[in-house]
Structures are given as structure tokens and as C-alpha cells.
Amino acid sequence: GGFLYSHLQQKVRNAEALAQKYKQQQEALSAQLQVVYEHRSRLERSLQKERGEHKKTKEDFLVYKLEAQEALNKEKQDSMNRYGALSSQHKILKNQHEDVKKQLLDLQLQHNSLKLEHRKTLETHSQKYAQLQQEKDSEVANLQDTVFKLREESKLLRKAHQDVHSQLLNAQAQMEEFRQLKEALQKM
Description:
Oligomer: single chain
Structural class: mainly alpha
Order of helices and strands: HH
Shape: rod-shaped
Largest sheet: none
Keywords: Coiled coil
Protein name: GOLI4 protein
Number of helices: 2
Radius of gyration: 44 Å
Coiled coil: 5-60, 90-142
Helix content: over 70%
GO cellular component, one term: Golgi membrane
């Protein structure tokens, strides 16, 4: 009976030691699990923050894109109006030039009978012709300068659009990384 009692006490002590060991392991696992939960919670908060920032960035980009498009359309319309005005002026000057040429031809036909008067008139018309030609050249130069400026503005707008597009691509890549991280966390 004593031997059996001693044997049972030894088993009880072994069972208590084993239970204590399991209890310590459970406490350690609980602590690790708590750390994992806290880390996951921080990552989820960070992900929510990044989503909010991405949404704001996307909204800002859409607003910028709309404003840039409106500005481009306005500038395009203004340029077309300026071009139309310059074109009208050019046509007027061209018509005036044709009129001067016609008048010059008429004066040349009257050359025999009005030679002296013709010389005076020809000198006047030559000066007027030179002035009109100079104005025409000036208008053409202004038009070419306007076209050059519009091309430069178009290049700048294209570059701005490419920069914004690159930023959007970077933001999308970050969202993909966060999505993959979230999937990995969900699997964990």
C-alpha cells in the first residue's frame, strides 16, 4: 500500500509539473498572439491611413486634371480666336495688296499720257506697298511667334500630364503592395 501510495504521489507530481509546463507554454503563446494582434492592428490602421491618403491624392489628381483640361481648352480657344483675328487681318492686308497691285497696273496703262503725274503716284504707291508689306511681314512674324509659344505650352502641359500619370502609377503600385500585405496578413 505504501509503495502504491508513493507511486501515485510521484505520478501526481509528474502530472503537476507537466501541467505547469503546458501552462507556461500557453502563457508564452498567448503573449506572442497578443503581439501579433497588436502588430496586425497597427498595420490595418496604417493601411486605412494610406487608403485615405491615396483617395485624397486621387481626388486631387482628378481636380488638377479637370482644371488643366479647362485651362488647356480656354487657351486653345483663345489661341483659335487670336489666329482667326490674325487670319482676318491677313486677308484684309492681302486684299489691300491686291488692290494696290491693280491700281499700279492701271497707273502703268496711263503711263504714256500721265508720265510726270505717274512718277509721283508710283512713288506714293511704292511707299504704301512697302508699308503694307512690312505690316504683313510683322503680322506673319507675330503669328509664327504665337504658334511657337502655343507649341511650347503644349509641351509643358504634356510633361505635366506625364508627371501626374507617373505619380498615379506609383500610387497604384503602393496600393498593390498594401493589398498583397493585407492578403498575407489575412492568411496569417
